[in-house]
Automatic annotation (TrEMBL):
<feature type="site" description="Lowers pKa of active site Tyr">
    <location>
        <position position="73"/>
    </location>
</feature>
<dbReference type="InterPro" id="IPR023210">
    <property type="entry name" value="NADP_OxRdtase_dom"/>
</dbReference>
<dbReference type="InterPro" id="IPR018170">
    <property type="entry name" value="Aldo/ket_reductase_CS"/>
</dbReference>
<dbReference type="InterPro" id="IPR020471">
    <property type="entry name" value="AKR"/>
</dbReference>
<feature type="domain" description="NADP-dependent oxidoreductase">
    <location>
        <begin position="22"/>
        <end position="228"/>
    </location>
</feature>
<feature type="binding site">
    <location>
        <position position="106"/>
    </location>
    <ligand>
        <name>substrate</name>
    </ligand>
</feature>
<dbReference type="Pfam" id="PF00248">
    <property type="entry name" value="Aldo_ket_red"/>
</dbReference>
<dbReference type="GO" id="GO:0016616">
    <property type="term" value="F:oxidoreductase activity, acting on the CH-OH group of donors, NAD or NADP as acceptor"/>
</dbReference>
<feature type="active site" description="Proton donor">
    <location>
        <position position="48"/>
    </location>
</feature>
<keyword id="KW-0521">NADP</keyword>
<keyword id="KW-0560">Oxidoreductase</keyword>
<protein>
    <submittedName>
        <fullName>Aldo/keto reductase</fullName>
    </submittedName>
</protein>
<comment type="similarity">
    <text>Belongs to the aldo/keto reductase family.</text>
</comment>
<dbReference type="InterPro" id="IPR036812">
    <property type="entry name" value="NAD(P)_OxRdtase_dom_sf"/>
</dbReference>
């Protein structure tokens, strides 16, 4: 599996398995299949309400923990500093893990600047390897940078060929944050049939003997993004 080196020096697999909108039973059935197929990177969140089953699969799958990359996310009610400390611990307990590889603030609301300090402390305590943001606009990333001693390693946003995020990347570069790794959710446009049928992708798919979806994912990875496609 190709990896990307984040700005904190840690490696992240370029493709992950997102478990958004999966029930606990669906996770128990399909996450082992994804691991069997070669996925080593799992993207969950407090708000997906399936961390317990994600943890069960991780602990029972037989793959050494250090070969897996586990991401989860806190929702805004968890951002105030004291709450953030408690909810990081509660998350680890739900997952049944000693650490997560990447912890994100899921949405750009609430007391994110206060919570960022708790996220940095979790890194120092070995509970979290890398920290980052999801769906944050640049002016709110700038607010976090005013108090941060650790830069966000990752920004998870919607990315696909209809939504390439080049303007966002330019803005981050102007702020000296061009080394943040972008992760793309909805890499196939949430299964957008028009996107998958675009002639540029169907023609390249024919030329290289691939599916249009594979061409789209390769485009995104070549752009330097981390992607979470899903069936
Ligand atoms: N941070 C955030 O706020 C946020 C928001 C949304 C999502 N996410 C993350 O992004 C992950 C992915 O979201 P998603 O599953 O909607 O993304 P997606 O991969 O863009 O879309 C999934 C859709 O693509 C279709 N598909 C998959 N492979 C295909 C292929 N080879 N050919 C044609 N169609 C194909 C699937 O259809 P079939 O089911 O028929 O295979 C499914 O309907 C989530 O699980 C979550 O981890 C994060």
């Amino acid at each position: 599996m190709q990896t990307v080196t984040m700005n904190d020096g840690n490696q992240i697999p370029a493709m992950g398995y997102g478990v958004f909108m999966m029930s606990s039973d669906e996770v128990r059935e399909h996450l082992p299949q994804a691991l069997e197929a070669g996925y080593r990177h799992i993207d969950t969140a407090n708000a997906y309400f399936n961390e317990v089953s994600v943890g069960e699969v991780i602990r029972s799958c037989g793959i050494p923990r250090e070969e897996l990359f586990v991401t989860t996310k806190l929702f805004p009610q968890s951002y105030p500093y004291d709450q953030c400390k408690k909810d990081i611990d509660a998350t680890l307990e739900r997952l049944g893990l000693d650490y997560v590889d990447l912890f994100l603030f899921h949405q750009p609301y609430g007391e994110y600047a206060s919570g960022w300090k708790a996220m940095e402390e979790a890194v120092a305590e070995g509970k979290v390897r890398s920290i980052g943001l999801s769906n944050f606009p640049v002016h709110k990333i700038a607010e976090i940078m005013e108090v941060a001693t650790v830069k966000p390693a990752v920004l998870q946003v919607e990315i696909n060929p209809y939504w390439n995020q080049h303007a966002l990347k330019d803005e981050l570069a102007k702020m000296g944050l061009g080394d943040i790794t972008l992760e793309g959710w909805y890499p196939l446009g949430h299964g957008d049939e028009g996107l998958l049928a675009e002639p540029v992708f169907t023609e390249l798919a024919r030329k290289y003997g691939k599916a249009p979806a594979q061409i789209i994912l390769r485009w995104s990875v070549q752009e330097g993004n981390v992607v979470f496609p899903k069936t």
